[in-house]
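Record 1 of the preview.
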Amino acid sequence: MIRQLLPVSALLFGSALLLFAGGIHGLILPLRGAQEGFGATSLGLLGTGWAVGYVAGCYFVPRIVGSVGHIRAFGVMCAFAAVSILLQALLVSAEFWIPVRAVSGFCFAGAAMIVESWLSDRASPQTRGTIFGIYTMVNLAAMTAGQMVIALGSVAGFMFFAVGAIVYILALVPTALSTTHTPAPLTSVNLNLSLLWRNSPVAVVAVFLVGISNASFGTLAAVYAGGVGLPLTTIALFASIPILAGAASQVPIGYLSDRMDRRKVLVGASALALVADLGFIILAPQDRMTNLILVAAFGAAIFAMYPIIVAHANDHAPEGTSIQVSGGLLMVFGLGSIAGPLAAGLMMSVAGSQGLFMTTITAHVVVILYTLWRILQRAAVPENEKGAFQMSAPARGITPETAALAGGEEEAEELEEAMDAEDAAEKAEVQARSSSTDPTE
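->
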């Protein structure tokens, strides 16, 4: 185990610092914004801006890395992430924060992709699963720690913005000092909706709706908790416990989904989320314990839904397309993440704190109804034809590189073949251009 981790320990440490700073950044903004009197719609638009930047980063960063290399690109991402949080501390304005939040989303996606590309390149087929599992756990712990550190001080001052910026900058040190060779180019992803739809309509519809639900909660959970009068320490727990509950629930849910129709497991997880939604809406709890119990159940459900959807889609994916399918679903999830916080913010501006869960309940009801209808239209994949369920971090922290890192030997070979084909096509294009400009012709 130690021999497997030593070559990638610096990358894991850099990723942990990145997620720690991201945890601070993601929680301090809605808390400080609410304190400054930002409306619920503006606070929701912070999540929309972040999602726009994140999706753009997944699309454009591979091209940037191809031009300047991994180390330089990673340094730029960390530097601009640090600049963005400092700018938000200097100029407290919703109109300014929203586009700057998009910049931080772009940088976060790019930095995560570069780390995952590096880890994937250093991992052998035999160690890939172990490294991915440890990488996921390290990131979950770091993100949770970043959120919980908010409870140690006041959100009114400059301190947490400065701490976030410092840690963003420190995150670039491990890769800057790395002596390893430059890894392979990053995985490019294109959104091919017709391919995804032919492969699995349930996956497309459900992943979009889960994007709406999860991003709404991820952006506005702290605003809800503050709105019902919870103290700062409990607000930090309210944001962190669902992530840990979601990580824990993936073990039994993954076990079930490998042994029965994954769509039925998706319906079950959505039903659990629905019960939690109803609890928040009907009970309107004000006390600490009820809110934390409900949010633990909510997180256990919503953060297990994305990997179920991806596993189901890959069960139907033609051979050699699993990474492209996973990347495409991530982009659809990103589109839902753009719409969700805005919709939830608008609902909260009308209905108050419970408007957050009125938004999520709508998404979960539609997931249940559409999935049940599709179960009647299409037979389940036989158990012996299924792939393995892969645990994942919350989907807002997933990039197209995650699928390559999470994959086993077959997926690694698939990615390598795709890269070789892309390189061959580029070389052929260069040769064609040189031939067309040959003066001897």
